[in-house]
Structure formats: C-alpha cells, structure tokens
Specification:
This is Exo_endo_phos domain-containing protein. By secondary structure, the protein is mainly alpha-helical.
C-alpha cells in the first residue's frame, strides 16, 4: 500500500490540483495526506470526496488542541484494525524536542501524550530539516 504525504503550501490553483491528481494516479496511492493547504473547509471537503482521502491535523490554536486529542481518541474506537497516522499534530511530546522558543507547559504536553497512549500510537520521530 502506498501513502503520499504532501506539505502542499496551498491548493488554490487548478494546476496544483491536477498535479496532485496525477501523482495520486501515477503512484496508485491508496492514502493521501495533505498539510498546510491554506484551503477552506469547503474546498478540502470537495477534495476529500473527489480523491477519497482522510487525514488528521492538530488544531493550530493551543487552547483548542484538546478537541483534536478528543477526536483522535474517538477515531481510535471506530475500528480494531491497525492504523497509522501521518501528518502534523502541531504538538511535541517533550520540551527537549523544541528548538528555541519558550518552554511549553507540562499540562499542554501531557494532553498529547495521554491521547497517543490511549490510542496505542507511537512517535516514529523525524529527520531534518527541522522546520517545514
């Protein structure tokens, strides 16, 4: 099974959409995850229906992330099959993962860790470049 993950940086043009469609067909990808699309909810719903994809994106606003973790736990309960989440959770597990900036409150990190633990998910890590 092939999975495509694309940091799209915007999906507003027809050319970008056609490129995405061609890549999906060329690689016969069964899974597709787009991030940083800068697209409206309506546009993403149209893409989802047309291309048949799902994804998860942690809420960009810190005070709303608990809703993302609640959703993640609910999704886990929908199936007993193995699952893989690829994408941007907009969160770190531990403060040592943060390169620069202010240290995050432990309560913020704890919510994310608890959701991953509840779902039986593990962080596979990443390799540089450190910023997307």
């Amino acid at each position: 099974m092939r999975t495509m993950v694309w940091n799209a940086q915007g999906l507003g043009s027809g050319r970008t959409f056609r490129t995405l469609l061609n890549l999906k067909q060329h690689y016969n990808s069964k899974n597709l995850f787009l991030m940083e699309t800068k697209a409206t909810h309506l546009m993403m719903e149209k893409l989802r229906v047309r291309l048949g994809f799902k994804g998860f994106y942690g809420h960009p606003e810190v005070q709303m992330r608990h809703l993302s973790w609640t959703l993640l736990k609910r999704l886990q309960g929908l199936s007993d099959l193995p699952w893989l989440y690829i994408g941007d959770f907009n969160e770190i597990l531990y403060n040592f993962e943060n390169e620069g900036g202010v240290e995050k409150p432990q309560s913020q990190l704890e919510g994310f860790r608890e959701a991953l633990d509840h779902c039986g998910l593990e962080d596979l890590g990443f390799s540089h470049p450190p910023f997307t």
